Amino acid sequence: MLPQHLLRRYKEEQHFFIQTANLFTQYTLLYFIKDGTYQRHIKRMNGLYEEKRKQLIGELETAFGDNVRIIGENAGLHFIAEFRSDRTQHEILQRAKERKLKMYGMDRFTLDDHLPGHEKGFVPLVFGFSHIRPEEIHPAVKRLYESIYGT
User: Fold this and answer.
1) Residue 14: pLDDT band by 50, 70, 90 thresholds?
2) pTM here?
């Protein structure tokens, strides 16, 4: 809630703004932050995501060896992996989809088919790992390997 002097100004100048979070939600978040629960939650989730990231990268490196390069692994909940392959990004993504893998390529982030900074023969794919369960990582990497190198 705003103090009276700001509330008057808000009504005069910002009345068109629609608040998307009701007071109950705002107060809940306030107490969540004040009592330290939010900070504990963030710390716990960071630890869980760090473990999943390490596991996924380890599985990729084990399965693909020198045929994979990991980029940006220390930034958030995504990273890029470039795979040495004669297949196109489109072919790999289509084969991955057939194997029930939800993936996307770098083409989502460009205006044309040119992927700057990537060598010919390496296919960049974007990996998000927030929703995958640890026990699903190994089988998913096996299906990815089949998508890239299988018949």
Assistant:
1) confident
2) 0.77
- For CA atoms 135, 136, 142, 144, the dihedral sign is negative
Contacts 24+ apart (CB under 8 A), 49-55: 49/77, 49/129, 49/130, 51/134, 52/129, 52/130, 52/132, 52/134, 52/137, 53/79, 53/129, 55/134, 55/137
pLDDT at residue 151, as a whole number:
83
Residue 106: predicted pLDDT: 83
Structure tokens at 44: 């716990």
pLDDT for position 51: 96
CA 115 to chain centre: 19
The pair of structure tokens assigned to 114 is: 């040119």
**Number of C-alpha atoms within 13 angstroms, CB side, residue 56?**
27
Q: Quote the CA–CA distance of 20 and 36 in Å, as a whole number.
A: 24
Please tell me what DSSP assigns to residue 130.
Answer: S
* Beta-bridge partners for 82: 69, 124
CB atoms closer than 10 angstroms to residue 138: 14
Residue 116 has pLDDT above 60, yes or no: no
